[in-house]
Design goal:
Radius of gyration: 21 Å
Enzyme class: lyase
Strand order of the largest sheet: 3-4-7-10-15-18-22-26-29-32
CATH superfamily of the largest domain: Single-stranded right-handed beta-helix, Pectin lyase-like
Shape: globular
Number of helices: 7
Pfam families: Pec_lyase_N, Pectate_lyase_4
Subcellular location: Secreted, Cell wall
Distance between the termini: 72 Å
Pathway: Glycan metabolism; pectin degradation; 2-dehydro-3-deoxy-D-gluconate from pectin: step 2/5
Low-confidence stretches: 1-20
CATH topology of the largest domain: Pectate Lyase C-like
Protein name: Pectate lyase
CATH architecture of the largest domain: 3 Solenoid
Oligomer: single chain
Number of strands: 33
């Protein structure tokens, strides 16, 4: 009898271990296709994991130094956009492509510009260019050619652009398949008042130059998630961008605001991600990196994310980001607004905050930048949360804990970051850009 009871308990635990992540992912039916996709995604995550993440951080600091040294000389001879003056690229990502007046004819150059943990994301590089010319989103299972839903579910690498400025209201969450670039340059592309963008069990995606706002939950149903699979989805949470079990993702120059849940949620073993040059406003729970402290798979220990050159702006409250388990490099961001805290976490994440500007709100209870949950002071005092060359303003404080993070040197690389006084310049053009063909962006 005892043996039978043990078997029942074991079976129940295994079942829960499968069902709970599926429910979190919005999966109503975990079929063989999705099981294989999840296994492949985990293999890619293991391959993408960097055992010495400090080196990736040092390398990015080195590129920031080079970019700022070169930007003054470049500005003297930079081509001009008649509407906005000379090209003013101010960080190593933008320096790679923005001052090229032929960017519209050389869109693939962007794929060579990634930095940080998401640096290997090349998206649709090598594939054809797909032009979205239809704003409709009427058929979830067999989307109409010319729509964004048709584009993101095509097979193989694809570089997705837009024929004109447009507002797209997604009737359900948009399931993006591997090896895609969504490139909004040259148009004002808004994903507004509908479902959000989801990357689940996928790899190698770039999202660039779009605006995502007023995202709401959607009921779910049968939704195409790739060229050869339609899956049954449960109700979505209303995240603007959701990354679940995905690797090698780069989100750059995206403007995000006011969604029902998070602006960017990264969970369930996702890794090798960079969030850069984004502008975020009017939201409570801004970015969640790791969703559960009791995840039976603890896949989020693989999570490595770079957050660099972003502007956390008006109307934000907390979670910029909120982290669990992994390694998070928060570099040269501008924190001009928060109401509760800026950077938080639980489950012993490692957080390296370098060269950021933190301007505390005029609220005595919210001067502290950091916030720790679900641990005693004796426990969280061991977590490695390090502030290095941050600029703390208006009474802001950063509670540093744990042993110093030992940065990895490589001959010829400068380790130290640019300090927080440079942030205004490094983040000057955060958010979706106004780009015109034939001129620097």
């Amino acid at each position: 009898m005892g043996g039978s009871a043990a078997k029942v308990v074991f079976t129940l635990l295994v079942t829960l271990a499968i069902i709970i992540p599926c429910l979190e992912a919005g999966i109503a039916e975990y079929d063989d296709f999705l099981k294989n996709q999840a296994e492949e995604a985990h293999t890619i995550a293991l391959e993408s994991y960097v055992p010495t993440p400090e080196f990736v951080a040092s390398e990015l600091n080195y590129h920031v130094h080079l970019a700022m040294q070169n930007s003054t000389r470049r500005g003297l001879r930079a081509p001009r956009n008649p509407a906005f003056g000379p090209c003013d690229s101010t960080n190593p990502i933008d320096n790679c492509w923005r001052c090229n007046k032929d960017w519209a004819n050389d869109r693939y150059q962007l794929a060579k510009c990634g930095k940080g943990f998401g640096r290997r994301a090349v998206g649709g590089l090598g594939g054809p260019i797909y032009v979205v010319n239809d704003t409709s989103d009427d058929d979830m299972q067999n989307p109409k050619p010319g729509t964004i839903r048709h584009a993101v579910t095509q097979q193989g690498p694809l570089w997705i652009t837009f024929s004109r400025s447009m507002r797209i209201t997604l009737q359900q969450e948009l399931m993006i398949s591997s090896d895609k670039t969504i490139d909004g340059r040259g148009a004002n592309v808004q994903f507004k008042d509908g479902g959000g963008l989801t990357m689940q069990f996928v790899n190698n995606i770039i999202i660039h130059g779009i605006r995502v706002k007023n995202i709401v939950p959607k009921d779910g149903g049968m939704i195409r998630d790739s060229y050869n699979h339609v899956g049954h989805r449960t109700r979505s949470d209303g995240d603007a961008i959701s990354i679940f079990g995905a690797s090698n993702i780069w989100i750059d120059h995206v403007s995000l605001s006011n969604s029902a849940d998070g602006l960017i949620d990264v969970i369930e073993g996702s890794t090798a991600i960079t969030v850069s040059n984004c502008h975020m406003t009017r939201h409570n729970d801004v970015m969640l990196f790791g969703a559960s402290d009791t995840n039976p798979h603890v896949n989020d220990k693989l999570m490595q994310i770079t957050v660099a050159f972003n502007h956390f702006g008006q109307g934000l409250s907390q979670r910029m980001p909120r982290c669990r388990f992994g390694f998070f490099h928060v570099l040269n961001n501008d924190y001009t607004h928060w109401q509760i805290y800026a950077i938080g976490g639980s489950s012993k994440p490692t957080i390296l905050s370098q060269g950021n500007r933190f301007i505390a709100p005029n609220l005595d209870f919210a001067k502290e930048i950091t916030h720790r949950d679900y641990a005693t002071p004796e426990q969280w005092m061991q977590w490695q949360w390090q502030s290095d060359m941050d600029l703390l303003m208006n009474g802001a404080t950063f509670n540093t804990t744990g042993a110093p993070i030992q940065m990895t040197y490589k001959k010829g690389l400068i380790m130290k970051p640019r300090d927080g006084t440079h942030v205004s310049r490094l983040t000057r053009h955060a958010g979706a850009l106004n780009c015109y063909a034939g001129f620097p962006c």
